[in-house]
Amino acid sequence: MPDPSGAPGHVLKLASPAHTDATVIRPTQPLPSKYRISLRVGFASFGDGKPGLNGYATGTETAEPWHPSDPANGQNGFYWLTILDAMPRPHNNTWIHHHRKVVIDSDNNVPPWMEMWNDSSFSLNGEQPIMIIALDGTQPVSDLYGPPFLSYSAGAWQPSGDIRAVDSYLPGEWYTASITRADGKFTLEISGRFKYGGLRTYNATVDMAATSVFHFDQAQFPDWFMFGDPHNNYYQGYVYYDDVRLETWND
Questions:
Q1: What gap in Å lies between CA 40 and CA 244, rounded to an integer?
Q2: What is the rounded CA–CA span in Å between residue 122 and residue 114?
Q3: Among residues of the chain, what percentage have pLDDT more than 90?
Q4: Which of 105, 126, 190, 197 has the most CB atoms less than 10 A away?
Q5: What is the count of structural domains for the chain?
Q6: Residue ranges making up the domain that contains 173
Q7: What is the CATH number of the domain that holds 207?
């Protein structure tokens, strides 16, 4: 597709015309012990988290049989970039929640059930949130939601289970996102123009062993990257991707 910004060149448009559609981009084999995966993401239209249909064409869809909620009004979003412990494929959201290690994603939610940092304080806000998350491997795993979140926001990793967004994305902008694994740490980064923080970079590093990130041990749980819309019981809309790059190196 042509670049939606009007710049020369072509980009990938990933679309889910219905909430039962799902598409993921993944590698053909697990990632090495050290890597950096990066890409451009932008011009997303997967809802806005405001009262109404939140990006869905009608208000009659459900997320059954895996979840009893109404996705037409409650949930809509996409994955900027994530690392899973199993080969990524389209699944229901419950499966994905049980296989994430670290995540950069967005879930527009109404009524809001997460807090967002507005560069001065936290408040309930589900409008175009960006979540930077490591999954907590020290706590019990919920059958429905998987491991609890360790959210990065307000310049620090937040207490386990507190779901907090780092900022809000703007729908007519390009962003760069990356996840790096090296020296026993995951580093998640996203750069661009944000609703509250303006033009900036958010960078979050977590020590995998000290924090006990869920399934960080590659000997038992290989790393796989994924981006797109993995949920075949949620999410309807489209988003653009470009400049996907995988970098690896030796000691």
A1: 7
A2: 10
A3: 84
A4: 126
A5: 1
A6: 12-247
A7: 2.60.120
